[in-house]
Amino acid sequence: MEKYNILFPKIKNTLQVFITNKCNKKCRKCFVANKTRHVDMNLSQYRNTLDQFNGYEKIILIGGEPLLCSNFDDILSENIQRGINTTVYTNGSSNLLSNNKIELLKNDLVDLRVGTLGYSGMEKTIDVNFLEIFGKRITVVHMLRPNNIEQLNDVAHISFNSGCRNLYLSSIVDMEAYKDFWTNSEDELSHREYSHVVRSFLSGFNLDMNIHVALRGIHPLYFFKHLANIPEKWGGENCNICRIISVFNDQSTIQCPLDISLRDTESVSFGKRNCKRHEWCVLQKAILKRGE
Ligand code: SF4
Ligand code: SF4
Predict the structure, then answer these.
(1) Ligand approaching nearest to the C-alpha of 115
(2) Least trusted range by pLDDT, from 13-17, 52-56, 139-143, 174-178
(3) What residues does each domain of the chain span?
(4) CA gap 207, 227 in Å, rounded
(5) Is 177 exposed, middle or buried (0-12, 13-18, 19+ CB in 10 A)?
(6) Residues 139, 212: contact at Cβ < 8 Å?
(7) Quick one: which atom of ligand 2 is closest to the CA of 259?
(8) Starting from the edge strand earliest in sequence, which strands make up the sheet with 210-214, in order?
(9) pTM
């Protein structure tokens, strides 16, 4: 079997902004949406947030569902005017789009990530209309958990047939249950189960897509042995510094996205704090593609 080529992109300094806690979905275990009264970040709060931090290389607009933020168009326009690379993390509901939103989302500075739990019978399923509008700009993020493993292959094929060329495999990490990244509840895949699911998917996958894999702190040799040649210096070592700051719609901040449910409110910065969960940042990913 032809091996995959593998890349380990470095995490960029990223400002992740939760611009609303409204959502049109009700995913089990969602830490953010619909929990308290609905609050949208307004444009002047958003501008203050941008001016408050130095050194970010990209921004993720997230929620809740960011397209439901009443100020979404103004916020994304602000990023485009300032020349900021922006990823919009959405559940990809085509009924939330307007012509103006579509035009903004097709700007060259903008990438789209569409999170899904499957294609049927789940709280958040893929909307083919949305995928077809944006095609190659979209990375479909399949959030694995025990009851949607068998949908992964179909999600990959539906995404590919809708024009998407990037599929991201990740998993639900239920930090609320045990307050510990390494202890898993029955609603999530253990680290061992997750790596097994990813390995067996990759073994049989043959579409022309980039597969992004959230490493979850697992060494790539364990994941990808026999599937890809892992360089001795693969980039995980020496990448133990926090490079992500999250800002919420009430303007509170956290350093590690895994602290969303815990609301750890230590002071935040890019590239200064060591990882408190592992010898390298557990949010690192690998990107795999079959050799040419
Ligand atoms: S789509 Fe996202 S924000 Fe909305 S309920 Fe589901 S996980 Fe939460
Ligand atoms: S605490 Fe660790 S996992 Fe979290 S952002 Fe920092 S380096 Fe990454």
Answers:
(1) 1
(2) 174-178
(3) 4-290
(4) 15
(5) middle
(6) yes
(7) 4
(8) 4-7, 285-290, 210-214, 166-171, 138-144, 110-116, 86-90, 58-62, 14-18, 244-247, 253-254
(9) 0.95
**What is the distance between the alpha carbons of residues 117 and 137, in angstroms, rounded to a whole number?**
20
Ligand 1 proximity of 63 Cβ (cutoff 6 Å): yes
Q: Where are the alpha helices (DSSP H) in the chain?
A: 43-52, 72-82, 99-105, 128-134, 152-161, 175-178, 191-204, 220-224
Q: What is the CATH number of domain 4-290?
A: 3.20.20.70
How far lies 269's CA from each of 63, 183, 265, 283, in Å?
21, 27, 12, 17
Ligand 2, atom 4: nearest CA belongs to which residue?
256
* Pocket-forming residues, ligand 2, beta carbon under 6 Å: 242, 244, 256, 258, 275-277, 281-283
| Across 23-37, 108-122, 197-211, least confident range | 23-37
Bond before 55 cis per omega within 30 degrees:
no
How would residue 281 be classed by pLDDT, with cut points 50, 70 and 90? very high
